[in-house]
Amino acid sequence: MGAMLHDARVRFEECHTAWLNECEFAELARTLKALAHEQGVATDPIINELVHFGADAAFALLTVESCIADEARAATPAHTAQMKPAGPPLVH
Asked: How much is the pTM?
């Protein structure tokens, strides 16, 4: 009976550890998604990188993608950035 209680306790601790790891992963994914959205970067590649290669690779990809996005914004002429999209056609 004592061995069964010990096994149950070990299984509970393993499940609890797995649950904590899952919560940590979800929080990391939310953080990466928020950072990517804030910097104007697509979130799907960042999350895929997290899933397949881990947090370090996801943060590295986020850094590279945000640098590329910043360079693209800097290369856009100022007058083009200030232009408003065309409205509905005027009907006389």
From this structure: 0.66
What is the per-residue pLDDT across 34-69, written as a single tens digit (0 to 9) for each?
Answer: 999 999 899 999 999 999 999 999 999 999 999 888
What is the DSSP annotation of 11-75? HHHHHHHHHHHHHHHHHHHHHHHHHHHHTT--HHHHHHHHHHH-HHHHHHHHHHHHHHHHHHHHH
**Nearest alpha carbon to residue 56 among 18, 28, 22, 21:** 28
Encode burial over 53-83: b for 16+ CB neighbours within 10 A, e otherwise.
Answer: eeeeebbebbeebbeeeeeeeeeeeeeeeee
CA quadruple 44, 65, 63, 41: dihedral sign: negative
43 by Cβ neighbours in 10 Å (0-12 / 13-18 / 19+) ranks as middle
Do 56 and 28 touch, CB atoms closer than 8 A? no
